[in-house]
Amino acid sequence: MRVNTLKDKIARKQDVFGLFVSIPHPVILEMIGHAGYDFVIIDLEHAATSMESVEELIRTAELAELTPLVRISKVERAEILKVLDCGAQGIVIPHVETLAQVKEAAHHAFYHPLGMRSLNSGRPGVFGKFPLTDYIEEANAQVMIVPMIESMKGVRQSSEILSHPQVSFVLEGAADLSQSLGVPWQTDHPDVREALKALHETAQQVGVPYATVTRGIEDMTLWRERGVHIYVLGDDRNTAFRAYAQKRNDYGSAGGSA
């Protein structure tokens, strides 16, 4: 199995940068890799991505030296098994509000003795080229479990959620968190900020790395001052759209037209 370079970088407290990937085309992954990112989170929750596309995206991520994580759509055995058998080096679990969700995901994601993932000698295990007993041990050492906390219920339960030994880091979900606080999309609202701060403090207390979805340089500076090293810089669609719009507006203004 491939070494999970993201896991190693996080252990060394190196700054790492990732993007959500919603456009299911390998060229997107190539560009992200060449742009110097460390990891991608292939999205199965919001994007209409097939499992065949997931495998192609993971293969491209490997070639582009990106650690491929997959945000699953739900905690369900078959989906977790398939994305890991495609070669994902970790799963991101959306809308985590209880420890039971993490326990179930870990049960499906890890082999014995950590879990009960169904045995397979597919592409992560190099199709059985090496002893599968060695692969099982290596897979358990490389796979990452990342809960997303996206509600006040999740924030309140975060100490228990993050106590699970297989949690690699926690990712905030300020957008849905703002909705749970009655201020949808107001991610800068004081209540949202306070909830994120509380989640970060809990993560520090239990020794779990915290990842932020950064929304500007000032936002990143704030979290860096708090000791955060994991940054998700939005998603591929919004990043591309803003770049296209900015270029169009710049040239439109230079030509004297809007």
Descriptive account of the structure:
- This protein has helices spanning 5-11, 26-34, 51-63, 77-85, 99-109, 132-142, 152-156, 158-161, 174-180, 190-206, 217-225, 236-254; strands spanning 16-21, 39-43, 67-71, 90-93, 144-149, 170-172, 210-213, 230-235.
- It is of the alpha/beta class and 258 residues long.
- It has an 8-stranded parallel β-barrel, surrounded by 7 helices.
- Helix 2 (26-34) packs parallel to helix 3 (51-63) and helix 4 (77-85) crosses helix 5 (99-109).
- The chain is globular.
- The N and C termini lie far apart (52 Å).
Largest sheet: 8 strands, parallel, barrel
Helix % is: 40-55%
Rg value = 19 Å
Label the structural class.
alpha/beta
Low-confidence stretches: none
- How do the strands of the widest beta sheet line up side by side? 1-2-3-4-5-6-7-8
- For this entry, what is the oligomeric state of its chains? single chain
Q: Can you count the helices?
A: 12
Q: What sort of overall outline do the alpha carbons produce when their principal axes are compared?
A: globular
What order do the helices and strands follow?
Answer: HEHEHEHEHHEHHEHHEHEH
Can I get a quick summary?
Helix content is 47%, strand content 15%. It contains twelve helices and eight strands. It has helices at residues 5-11, 26-34, 51-63, 77-85, 99-109, 132-142, 152-156, 158-161, 174-180, 190-206, 217-225, 236-254; strands spanning 16-21, 39-43, 67-71, 90-93, 144-149, 170-172, 210-213, 230-235.
Structure characteristics:
15% strand; alpha/beta; globular; 8 strands; 258 residues
